[in-house]
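Q: what sequence does this backbone want?
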């Protein structure tokens, strides 16, 4: 088997393959201290592991279920940016053009997923997407994060404090990247649907990286924020504020501190931070649904 030709063929069919199996090339350099013969001998095993991580799933879900979960997440993001852009004196003037681009991306994702689902759009998504009914809706998003209950809401200042707005935005985007990765395996063999999911996944990743860089640019002094995720919890999000906010955000990053791949603890050949930054972790269906549910008014 010619592995180089295989990689070339995969890259042609899936342009994001290289980013999905090796998203942080600079970080990976910190853990590639194997001898060349060992590395070559390990290639077949490595490819098997990477394919399982990128596309593998053990359960089954209908295509409509997968796309509706994606649509709910896209509606959440689209509504969030639409609200932010409409809020006076929230978004810094220097940043508005970029946020308008992100907002347009999310709106386009919503439109396309709806067209792909057709009559398969869930009743929940049909209501959440009814932007004309926001005056007295039966089901809308609560971006404060407590299902419409202002008591103990983790993000009560999300549209009055720009730094909190940025933190929630980057958390949403990081969540979207993980959620798409967790659902992609259910679309194996479905070229159209899988291509859509992977194309949106890569755009969400670019949004996430941009927002992390933007937040870092506003930091005073040293910051732990990087354009990619490091570890989990507060380390990953860099979110300051209430304990409730940190706890809610931490759910998005649970598992990102993983240092074991294919049963091998990679800290034997690199630092924990380098290992964590070298691999994206998917988020499972139940966790994704639970996180999105925090922002739907009950």
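A:
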């Amino acid at each position: 088997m010619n592995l180089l030709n295989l990689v070339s063929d995969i890259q042609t069919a899936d342009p994001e393959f290289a980013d999905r199996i090796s998203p942080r090339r600079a970080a990976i350099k910190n853990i590639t201290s194997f001898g060349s013969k060992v590395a070559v001998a390990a290639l077949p095993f490595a490819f098997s592991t990477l394919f399982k991580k990128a596309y593998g799933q053990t359960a089954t879900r209908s295509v409509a279920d997968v796309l509706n979960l994606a649509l709910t997440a896209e509606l959440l993001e689209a509504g969030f940016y639409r609200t932010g852009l409409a809020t006076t004196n929230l978004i810094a003037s220097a940043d508005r053009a970029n946020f308008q681009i992100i907002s347009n991306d999310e709106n386009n994702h919503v439109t396309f997923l709806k067209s792909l689902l057709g009559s398969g759009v869930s009743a929940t998504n049909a209501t959440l997407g009814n932007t004309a009914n926001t005056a007295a809706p039966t089901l809308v998003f609560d971006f404060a994060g407590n299902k419409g209950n202002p008591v103990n809401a983790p993000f009560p200042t999300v549209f009055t404090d720009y730094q909190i707005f940025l933190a929630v935005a980057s958390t949403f985007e990081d969540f979207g990247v993980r959620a798409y990765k967790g659902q992609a395996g259910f679309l194996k063999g479905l070229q159209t649907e899988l291509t859509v999911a992977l194309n949106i996944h890569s755009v969400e990743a670019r949004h996430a990286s941009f927002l992390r860089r933007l937040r870092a640019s506003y930091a005073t002094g040293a910051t732990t924020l990087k354009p990619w995720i490091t570890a989990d919890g507060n380390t990953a999000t860099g979110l300051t504020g209430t304990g409730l906010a940190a706890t809610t955000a931490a759910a998005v990053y649970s598992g990102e501190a993983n240092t074991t791949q294919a049963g091998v603890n990679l800290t034997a050949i690199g630092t924990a931070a380098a290992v964590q930054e070298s691999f994206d972790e998917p988020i499972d269906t139940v966790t994704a649904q639970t996180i999105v549910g925090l922002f739907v008014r009950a």
